[in-house]
Amino acid sequence: MPITYTVGTLLILTALGYLLGRRKAVTVAGGNIASLHSVPSYYGSFSALWVLLPTISLVLLWLALKGPVINWAVVDGMAPEAVLGWANASIPPGELEAVRARVAEGAGALTDIQRQLLLINITNLAAGQAQYVNPAVVDILRPAAAHMQDLRSLTDWALFGICVSLAAAALFITRGKIGPAFRARNNVERIVTFLLIICSLIAILTTVGIVLSLVFESLRFFTKVPVTEFLFGLQWSPQTAIRADQVGSSGAFGAVPLFAGTLLIATIAMCVAAPVGLLSAIYLSEYASGAVRNVIKPVLEILAGIPTVVFGFFAILTVAPFIRDMGAAIGLDVSSQSALAAGVVMGIMIVPFVSSLSDDVINAVPQSLRDGSYGLGATRSETVKQVILPAALPGIVGAMLLAVSRAIGETMIVVMAAGLQANLTANPLASVTTVTVQIKSILVGDQVFDSAKTLSVFALGLVLFAVTLVLNVVALRIVQRYREKYD
Amino acid sequence: MDTQTMTKPAAENGTKSAKMSARGVKVFYGEKRALHGIDVDIYENEVLALIGPSGCGKSTFLRTLNRMNDTIDICRVEGLITLDGADIYDPKLDVVQLRARVGMVFQKPNPFPKSIYENIIYGPKLHGLATKKDEFDAIVEQSLKRAGLWNEVKDRLMEPGTGLSGGQQQRLCIARAVAVSPEVILMDEPCSALDPIATAHIEELIDELRENFTIVIVTHNMQQAARVSQRTAFFHLGDLVEVGNTEEIFTNPRDERTQGYITGRYG
């Protein structure tokens, strides 16, 4: 009985619950619907929700627990001889002694990794994929595999039975409750509120979980590298030696060059995005006629929809060579992965972001202020300069801060267009690297999860998170306070 | 133009000439015609009240007088409107100068989010009416005095204009309009957002301003029209039904529709 059938049955029962609840209500009303407390469909929904919610929760819970529970039951249920037989064929002789010594404990004699290996063999066998299992142990493991299959089908049936009886009980109880005085609408509203709360909790809990994992892994990193070295050190070279005699991989975790590189690129990006975005927002909201705006706004939104990876190869294939050639023409030595190229392209990427946010705040400036200014004989540009921009300034500052936080967190463009060398420089023509680029390049490929190098990404991520969080909070507060003023 | 027999300040009115006049003014919003040909004269140093039920076109007409309708994309104006005999819709005419001569006060007080002082000097600065600090100071003082606000705000000129009460804000907006020394001031229901005391204040003020300015006021409040205006124009469904001496309009209207409106049968 696969779980899909169980869920399908539950859905049918839910529909049945709705119909029965509704019918009961109509019957009870005896032709006078108005005598019911709620409309009949609420009685139906009430039954349906009570059929569906407890059983579906049970199914979800079981889906989460099923794997570990069955694995544990199967492996620990194996006869000691079977475990030993499997160990004889699968474990190197050196480790075999330890298993033999404790053979009476069955699977308890195995280390975690050996246990995993055993489990993979059994699971493959149970799935009918004996070709992936060492032929020598196939016969030894067959009983365990059969046990696993039995357990699976047994628990699935049990789940089906429990769910159906729960649903039937819910049907019966809610049917008993339904009467003219029963407040079905209030009950349904309460259940719906509860569901909505659960959904928002999922988002909040996920965030909290991510933050906590960042914090704890960072703490692990800071036991290997002092906080002060990380925050104030001027050298970043995360290659640590794997063997003691390795050369050239001392490992230095001073993140200042990364922060500086991030700041440099974000600054260049804002130098492009702020004026272009703001001025185009002013044009759109104050100067453009309706027809023009109807063309330009969607086009700007398309720009916002271009995947950042596309901007990335635009940066590396078009802008970077262009800037290098320009530099060469006037005798400057420009790195082929200059901060300038990455920053400029990132700025262009943020333009629609800045312009649509600025457009919002500019439009929020009441028309009456424009009228007042025009009525005094001001021209459009005078009105923009002296009335609209001052009035919209807090909102525009907020929009800019949001854009900065976007620029700092952006990864793809800098991964492709900025370099990997952690140079500490303010020269936009040199190659710099950013926090996000380092996180990405450290985590690409196979990693051991206890080296300082790997753990450093959590510290970097934590810093990134803290900075963007502060920026967002400040920016949103500014924007909000400004909105309140005019609404 | 029929009713030129003025009874109120009769002696003066006889000698007055038309400051602004409209002939056959039609206004279209896209396909829809909002005004069907308006003919009216506005005399110097008088208050002309525009009354009529909602949607009758009185505000639309008011806004054609300083071309505020230009800011609405789909709005089109036909006919002739003159200021001192010159066509204000002449393509060669600078709309900025027109608005400096024909100022406007709006329905909702709309002080700029700046200090009281900066609100007043906004217009004079734009038009280069003054350059030195003491000249600006003089303009601020004179305008606020004319708007009857000077005594209330003279000690806090640098505080934001948005911090004033509704009635004070509206007087600030009047002072702001006066500061440019316009010849005509248009008022679009200037008291509709104010309480009765603030309204009485503004009405008094309008009567005083008449000495120096020509005023056109749109109002929903017929008592107000009767109190502040010398002449009244009644609009209905985009037509100018009747215009004449205020007293006559209110006591002895010639058109049935006017009578219906002022006796409260509709509107």
From TrEMBL, chain A:
InterPro entries: MetI-like, MetI-like_sf, Phosphate_PstC, PstC_N. Keywords: Cell inner membrane, Cell membrane, Membrane, Phosphate transport, Transmembrane, Transmembrane helix, Transport. One of its GO terms (cellular component) is plasma membrane. Residues 259-475 form the ABC transmembrane type-1 domain. It is found in: Cell inner membrane; Cell membrane. GO terms for biological process: phosphate ion transport. The chain crosses the membrane at residues 6-21, 42-65, 157-174, 194-216, 258-282, 302-323, 335-354, 387-408, 457-479. It is a multi-pass membrane protein. GO terms for molecular function: phosphate transmembrane transporter activity. Belongs to the binding-protein-dependent transport system permease family. CysTW subfamily. Part of the binding-protein-dependent transport system for phosphate; probably responsible for the translocation of the substrate across the membrane. This is Phosphate transport system permease protein. The gene is pstC.
